[in-house]
Amino acid sequence: MSVGLGIVFGVVVVIITALVLAPPVAQVRFGSLRDRFGPELDRVAARHHGDTKAAERELKARVRRFGNLRLLSLTASAREEYAAQWVDLQGQFVDCPGAAIAKANRLLWQLAVARGYPADSHARQVEALSVHHPRRVDGIRQLHAAAQQAAAGEAEPEKMRQAMVAGRLLLEELLTTGPQEGSASKARARRLRSVPAQRTADRTRSLG
């Protein structure tokens, strides 16, 4: 075999080996979306009846629309004010869960707007939040649904409790501007999690 043919043969072997070992392109794309969106990917896929291609297209469209969203910082005093309002609502939840849920829903929406997320519709705000807070965005969905159910007199105490907990987790992320906040962020998180129990009939249930 000539030197030229040997080189060509070697190149062909390398290319074939690379193609065999490389994962499918669709798997790579879906895997990267899984890393970024976590459970949000499962939720979107379920809404598309398990169609992962449709879920992938939807999430990619969200990233294109909101990936470069200009997020705004909050002053330290504003962060503390939002945290204080939430702690107060957690206290109100003990005796008036429906009213507290409605106020918590509005407060979380206001905080998201203050951080630069869309204010024109709940759906667009959720989509934008899902790009930047994919593992906590369900908090705003749960609060919004619980507030609507409470207004209709159909809310279940346990679902309202779960909505308050999920909403608090998103609120904590929205109030955290970065590692430079340090001990102030940790202290605020502890205060948000130090909540009273909810009275339900003859028993109590913790919000924590």
Summarize this structure as a short list of keywords or feature phrases.
2 domains, two-stranded antiparallel ribbon, 208 residues, 10 helices, mainly alpha
Q: Can you describe this structure?
A:
The chain has 208 residues and is mainly alpha-helical. The chain folds into 2 domains: 3-66, no CATH class; 76-206, no CATH class. Helices cover 71% and strands 4% of the residues. The protein has a two-stranded antiparallel ribbon. α8 crosses α9. The model is unreliable at 11-30 and 195-204 (pLDDT under 50).
Q: In a nutshell, what does this entry contain?
A:
With about 210 residues, the chain is mainly alpha-helical. The chain has ten helices and two strands.
Instruction: Tell how many strands the DSSP assignment holds.
Output: 2
Order of helices and strands: HHHHHHHHHHEE
Cα gyration radius (Å): 23 Å
What is the overall shape? globular
Strand order of the largest sheet: 1-2
Task: Measure the end-to-end span.
Answer: 74 Å
**Approximate helicity band:** over 70%
Structural class: mainly alpha
The main pleated sheet reads as: 2 strands, antiparallel
Continuous helix count? 10
Taken as a percent bin, the fraction of beta residues is under 5%
Average pLDDT confidence is: 81
Number of domains: 2
Mind sketching the topology for me?
Blueprint: H1 3-21, H2 25-37, H3 39-47, H4 52-66, H5 76-93, H6 97-114, H7 122-132, H8 138-151, H9 157-175, H10 183-193, E1 197-200, E2 203-206
Antiparallel strand pairs: 1-2
Helix pairs in contact: 2-4, 3-4, 4-7, 5-6, 5-9, 5-10, 6-8, 6-9, 8-9
Keywords: Membrane, Transmembrane, Transmembrane helix
Transmembrane segments: 6-26
Organism: Streptomyces durmitorensis
